[in-house]
Fold this protein.
Amino acid sequence: MFNVGSTLLDACVLGILRKGDTYGYKLTQQIKEILSISESTLYPVLRRLQREGMLETYDEAVMGRNRRYYRLTEKGKIQSVLYEQEWQQFSEMIEGLLSGKGGMKDE
Amino acid sequence: MSKQAYLHELKRKLHGLPEDEIENALAYVEEFYDEAANDEEAYQALGSPAKFAAQIKAEFTIKQTSIFSYHANPNADIRKESKSAFKNIWIILLGILSLPVSLPLACVIIALIFVLLVLCAIPFIIVIAVLVAMIGSIAFMIGLLFEAGLWTLTNVLLLIAGVLICTSIFLLGIGILFWIGSKFFPWLIRKLGDFFHQLKGEKNYE
C-alpha cells in the first residue's frame, strides 16, 4: 500500500544484517517477506551499499556451491543505528498524524 | 530459462562494464539459481536478463557521474576532462534509456541533450567560419595588390599590419572561447548528472 523509497530500503538491508551475516538469496527472501520488491531492484542496492563501504562480502562453499555472504562494516553499523533513530522519530510523528493526535497544536 | 543460458545472456548485456561489476552480478544470479527450488522459480524472481542488466547499468551510471563531479580537478588537462565528459554524456544517455520512464519523457530528455550538444558545437563552427573568412580576405588583398600593381612599400606594410592585427584578435578570441568552454562544459555535465540523479532518486520501490 505504501511506497518504500530507496533510503528506507537501504535501512532495511542494513537492519537485517545487524542480526548477523546472510547470503544474497536469504537476504532477498527476508526483504520480500515484507516488501514486494524484485530481485533485479534489490541487487543494485546491495551492490551500491557495498561500494559505499557499508557492507562487504565473503564467499563460503556450502554443499558444493558458493554462497556470497554480506557483512556489515563499522561504517554500515553506524549508519544503521542512525537510520533506526531517524526512523523512530519519523514514525512517531506519522503515527501522531494518522491517529489524529499529533501535528501542530491549533491556536 | 536455464542457469547457463541466463548467465550467458546477462554477461552479454553487461558487456562494457568493469570486470568485477560483471563478476559480482553473475555470482549473485548463480547463487540465486542454486538456492531456488527450480530454474523456473529463479527466472520468475530475477526477471529477464535484459531487465536485470538495465537496473545494474542505471545504478552504475550514478556512480560514474558522481565520481566525475566529486573528483573534477580544476587543474586537470581540459582535453582529458572533456573527453571523459563526452563519455559521461554517453553513459547518462544509456542510463536514461534504462530508466522505466515513459517514452515521451525519454524523448524529451534526449532531444534536450541533443540541443545542448549542438549548442556546444556552435563555437567551433564560428571559429572555422572566421578562419575561412580571414584567410579568404588576406588572399583577396594580396591578389588585389598583384592585379592592380599597387606594390608599394606602404601598401605592403599596411597589409602585414592588417594580417598581424587580424591574427592576434583571432587568437585572443580562441583563448576566451577555451576559457569559457573549460568552465562551462564541466558545469553542464555536473548539472546533467544532478538532474539524472533526481530522476533516479524520485523513483520509488513499490
Summary: The radius of gyration of chain A is 17 Å. DSSP finds four helices and three strands in chain A. The helical segments of chain A are 6-18, 24-34, 39-51, 74-99.
